[in-house]
Amino acid sequence: MNSDKTFDEVYSQAVAQEPIIEETPQGEVIETPIVENVEAQETPQAEVTPEPTITPETPQATPEPIDHWKELGVDDDGKKVLEAWKQGMLDEYLSIKNANYDAIPDEELLRMQLKQEYPTMSQDKLDRLYNKKLNAYGLTNEYDEEAVLDGKVQLEADMQKVRDGLKQKQSEYQIGEYKAPQQVQEEEYRKQQEALGSYMDSVDYFKQLETSKSIKLTNDLNFSTPQGFNAKELAKNPDKLMASFWNADGTFKAAEFADMVNYRFNSEMVKNTMINHGKSLGKKEADDYLRNPSSRASQDVMPSTSPKIVITKWGNS
Predict the structure, then answer these.
(1) Closest CA to 309 of 284, 273, 272, 291
(2) Where a domain ends, among 172, 190, 205?
């Protein structure tokens, strides 16, 4: 033992190192350990980002379409009648839909067949054709009953084929899709333009014109077409041709239009007039050449044994 320490110091140190004993009311002894004064060090924790929670969407029920026809008490047949009426086909629809072809006699069915085959024929001509058909079947033979019976059998067989065809057409009859009057007109115009274009493409003259680039006025005179000239396209689209006679300010080129119309209805006269006028100009130049020696020096071509006609201009004399 270190003798330098006093008793009080040794006692105090011993008391400080001994565990503290506490007595509980029941007499139990609890030892409280000595805890050194060490600063607690916190361990850093990694920050955890919580994953988002996805809540599944509840599918919405698709509403059923409202059948307004059903609400009005209109069945399928009624809808077809209204659709046929809207398209102007009511008479045709009712005629085909309500026809009872089994109840129509063979002779009457023959009349119907002829009327369908020749819709533009007059009633008098249809009657004549009908009687001719009956004679062909032998039904007008008053002296041969067997021939009449054979004709009726043949007529019945032929009309049954017609009857079956009409029934097939009746079962397959469909009311076309509704189209507004303007749409019908536009489609009809488009079809006409397509037919016109196909025809113009087949015209041999236009094919030759595309190659030769010239228009024949007479056997000895051709007219070269200007650049961009396309007669076939103008023939396909007459509206484009008419548009060329309008000025930008909205005025009409009446004189040019009259020239075109005049040439259309008097082409031979116009060509002959132009040719005769050219001849008269040529003759005048020849006369001047012979009568006025001073004019000869200005000509590039001098006469040899006979004067040559040189046309220096076209125009009014």
Answers:
(1) 284
(2) 172
Lowest-confidence segment of 95-109, 184-198, 240-254 by average pLDDT: 184-198
Alpha carbons 89 and 173: distance in angstroms, whole number: 12
Q: How far apart are CA 135 and CA 305, in angstroms?
A: 87
Q: What is the pLDDT of residue 65?
A: 67
Closest-CA residue to 208 (of 228, 234, 231): 231
Calpha distance 266→260 (Å, rounded): 10
- Rounded to 5 degrees, what are φ and ψ at 120? -95, 0
Q: Are 184 and 127 in the same domain?
A: no
* Higher per-residue confidence, 27 vs 96: 96
Q: Residue 157 has what pLDDT? A: 94
Please report whether residue 115 resides in a domain. yes
Place of tokens 């007059």: 122
Token couple for 296: 């000869």
Q: What's the confidence (pLDDT) of residue 21?
A: 53
Higher pLDDT, 209 or 11: 209
Same structural domain, 152 and 185 = no
Q: Are residues 122 and 151 in the same domain?
A: yes
- Using the structure block, give the residue that is written with the tokens 């076209």: 314
Sequence-separated (6 or more) residues with CB below 8 Å from residue 147: 138, 141
Measured in whole angstroms, the distance separating CA 90 from the mean position of its chain's CA atoms is 28
Q: Would you place residue 304 in the very low, low, confident or very high pLDDT band (cuts 50, 70, 90)? A: very low
> What range does the domain containing 226 cover?
179-232
Per the CB < 8 A criterion, the answer to whether 125 and 115 are in contact is no
Place of tokens 């056997």: 219
